[in-house]
Amino acid sequence: MVNKHKPWIETSYHGVISENTDTVLLDPPLVALDKDAPVPFAGEICAFKIHGQDAPFQAVVLNKTSGIGLLQAKSPIDCELQKEYTFIIQAYDCGSGPSGSGWKKSHKAVVHIQVNDVNEFPPAFREPMYHAAVTEGKIYDSILQVEATDQDCSPQYSQICNYDIVTPDTPFAIDRNGNIRNTEKLSYDRQQQYKIMVTAFDCGQKRATESVLVRIDVKPVCKPGWQGWNKRVDYEPGTGSKQLFPKMHLETCDEPLSSVRATVELQTSHIGKGCDRETYSEKSLQKLCGASSGSTDLLPAPSASTNWTASLLTDSGRDSDLIFRFDGRQAAKIPDQVVPQNLTDQFTIATWMKHGPSPGLRAEKETLLCNSDKTEMNRHHYALYVHNCRLVFLLRRDFTQVDTFRPAEFHWKLDQICDKEWHYYVINVEFPVVTLYVDGVTYEPYLVTDDWPIHPSQIDVQLTVGACWQGGEVTKPRFTQYFRGSLSGLTIRPGKIESQKVISCLQACKEGLDINSLESLGKGIKFHFNPAQSILVMEGDDLENMNMALKKVAYINSRQFPTPGIRRLRISTSVQCFGEDTCILVPDIEAVVMVLQPSEPRITITGTERLTQPAADLSGLAGLPLFQDLHIISTVTKNDAPSHSRAHRPGVLEEIIHNLDYCDVLVMGEELNPGQESLHLDRSSLLGKHLDATNSTSGISIYGVDSMSNYEQVVRQVRYHNWHAAELSERKFRLTCSELNGRYTSNEFNLEVSVLHRSGAESHVNHMAVQPQYLQAVHHPVMAHSQSSTHNSAIPSAATVVIVMCITALVVTVVLGIYRIHVAHQRSSDSADRTKGGEMDWDDSALTITVNPMENIEEPQAADNEASEEEEDEEDEEEDEQDDDITSAESDDSDEEEARVPRGPQENKRRNQLEWDTTTLPY
């Protein structure tokens, strides 16, 4: 066999390999051809050989017949060590025989291989930290430059394409070259140093493993302004006044000043109706401020008796402050009996109002209050409305013998009417003089117009709120001139005007600005407060004295439970310099007072929860006092413990004293039947107190702002009468009390009154001998009180028990005999009583048994009673009982045990039938 021809391959190859792999992709593919084919050995390819300086590649033959080969790396290639390789490759045939002799080789071909980079290295910063300093008040194009590198071999993965600031909310930015600049002017007073973290990304978006710290110091420059003040001042409720700026001073940069004027403003428009006021009801506030009686609330909370406000929109203001919002579509008719048809020459109208400019070019009248003809005509007798940001009060008098012009319209033009803030408006009418008070300040009308009096007619008038009623002179009756805004506490007082002192008290803030130690302000300091003490203006010609005066400005909140949240503070300053046309500008400063959450009080009502009384006590002239041993206390949890011990003791319970504003005694179940029962409270118990009360078939409401002790005294006077007590088995009542219009409410104190019954004449029975089943309903009033009282428990001594047992031994024979007679009599009349639905009463009027007074003392011990016990078992128990030495302490159940063990309806019914009266027992 002859090997005539050399193998043939391409003259050059181009290959690509990704780093960290060993497979090369060649173009064209590695194939060797031999013209000796298909002759074996001579036409087959046995090898490819590589010639080069330590080229880390090898070529292998995949198929000798076809000559296909594969170029691969001996080990994974690292681009960072070498990016490309060039070497020579030759193909060898298998020679002339099996021995491989006479092989021939191809010509030499050039192989060029490029290594593809893998993004395996993250960027790394050249420096462990960067630092720079800037001067405040300047914008820099570049404060400093950070630089990162990447060890990857390719331009794509080794170049840094982007830098980013990791720290949020910083006044800095960075470009793709690493230059950091500030985006706003820096202030040394606000922050002296910034620490920001910066990261880098290569062009393959691989992020640096570790961010680098960049520290930028802010160097101050002298500029005028207040220094040394805190952005936030925390106020703990109940701590009196607190200084707002104890370390503040004015920096003037050595500029000579002739005078300084500073205005401190406390912004509280978002708190309730303008500031933190007491949130008691309008009537309670009027009593506290000494207002005259007879005021009528035209916008009360909706209820069964005040249902005309039910359709109005309400905003739940702070601390349950009742606010009505009118959007131009709501109005309310006031019932005729609420306010007299015609007011006298003296009366007062008062309201809180929040109002803004009317939308549209032509503003219509917006009616707060209107009294107009109910039918047929559209005459307005009196009205209060807003028109073009002017407050107008219309008052047209009825026709009298004098037919002349009289003052009828009173106009006021004030900024407060349309500033969208809460203000307190009071209109005092002493015809023909009408005076307006806004936030306690008097304003005279700028315009008064006259009109003819209204001719008399038989037409009734309609009083409305939120719009005016058109009686239908031209069109059908309807509302018109709707109000858009918010109202609260709209009241009218016929027959009397209110004093300025009372008006100021009703709108007075409980929070405001204060000055500690007026005496130390200095002679050169002038100051002025507005009526609400929310704005303080101070002026002086000495800088040091002004600095000292501002340090004494304090915040005070006299409410025991103030509304928590922020109160914004603003200080604006103007200065005058010596001989200068232009003077330094002092920027305004803004801070906040953070009123912390007060410790919430827990109002707790305690007392007897179950009364068992003879029917005679309920039907008697005095009635039954329900809450004689009532106690109302209030506690708060205070974190007074040191910080190291709070983990074991989270808070200390501390009793506090504060006011209440209502207590309700509610009848549970069916309402009172006026024909046979009532709750009664003597009006004399309210004398000397700021309290009033209303009574209905559903209970008694006691209201007004007064102390807990006064409420205790009055509630203890509540009595229950029932003229048909023999028909009653029990009555349940519930007592709740509240502070600040329901912001803090007590527990629900439930009281159950059980009635003891008797029939016929007076019954005298030694209850010591009665079976437990019968005796559980028997209680002497003294015993019932002592058992359920939280303060006294009748627990007999050992000697007392011995005496009782001895006396019992003497009378037990007589008693048991009489008792068996009684049981027999009772059993014989049992079926007849059942058919009539009557009670299992019995007549022992002929019996007279004297009971030892020591039997009043009862040892409370639970008796073992079964509710499902049948009537037939009673006789067996009676026989068994003859052999037992039973004492009253052993056979009586305590009230507390009865209250704890629930009974089914059958047992309750049976128990009511078995009750009997012990009021006639001679002790």
Structure description:
- This is Calsyntenin-2.
- Residues 852-923 are annotated as: Disordered.
- It is a single-pass type I membrane protein.
- Residues 866-898 have a biased composition (Acidic residues).
- Residues 9-125, 126-226 form the Cadherin domain.
- This protein is mostly beta strands and 923 residues long.
- The protein has 14 helices and 57 strands.
- The strands form 14 sheets. Strands 22, 23, 24, 26, 31, 32, 33 and 38 form an 8-stranded antiparallel beta sheet that branches. It has a 7-stranded antiparallel beta sheet with strand order 25-35-27-28-29-30-34, with no helix packed on it.
- 32% of the residues are buried.
- Mean pLDDT is 78; it is low at 641-649, 760-801 and 823-923.
Report the span from N to C terminus. 149 Å
Mean pLDDT: 78
The low-confidence parts are: 641-649, 760-801, 823-923
Report on the biggest sheet.
8 strands, antiparallel
Q: Tally the beta strands.
A: 57
Broad shape: elongated
Cα Rg: 49 Å
In DSSP terms (H or I, runs of 4 or more residues), the helix count works out at 14
Q: Which strand-content bin applies to the residues?
A: 35-45%
Amount of helix: 10-25%
**Which structural class best describes the helix and strand composition?**
mainly beta
Region (Disordered): 852-923
GO molecular function: calcium ion binding
Domain Cadherin: 9-125, 126-226
Membrane topology: Single-pass type I membrane protein
